[in-house]
Specification:
One of its GO terms (cellular component) is membrane. With 103 residues, the chain is an all-alpha fold. The protein has one domain. The protein is 83% helix and 0% strand. The chain has two helices and no strands. The protein is rod-shaped, with a radius of gyration of 40 Å. The relative contact order is 0.04.
């Protein structure tokens, strides 16, 4: 142990200063890269959340439009059938029952 200490103390101090400087440079570089990575991750998170919100809004609007279309596809033929049935119930037996639907 004493021999190692003697050899260590015999080494020039400027070598240790250089090594410490290199290590400080590496540590600073690592810290900078960590900060840049955190910033990039936060930006990615924000853009992902925005895209998800836009997707939800678009899906909601498409669902509403499809609901309205399907409702109209069902109610319009029913309205025609009800109108014909009301005319027949009112005594107009000349009312033809027209059905151009294939379902």
């Amino acid at each position: 142990y004493d021999n190692a200490r003697t050899r260590l103390n015999a080494l020039p101090a400027d070598g240790f200063v250089k090594i410490r400087g290199y290590m400080r440079t590496m540590i600073d570089s690592n810290n900078r890269q960590i900060k840049e990575g955190a910033i990039a991750a936060e930006e990615l998170k924000q853009s992902s959340v925005l895209m998800l919100e836009i997707g939800v809004v678009i899906a909601f609007l498409v669902a509403i439009m499809l609901g309205v279309m399907i409702t109209r596809m069902i109610t319009r033929p029913l309205a025609v059938a009800v109108a014909s049935a009301q005319r027949i119930a009112g005594g107009d037996l000349t009312q033809p029952i027209v059905s151009d639907r294939g379902d």
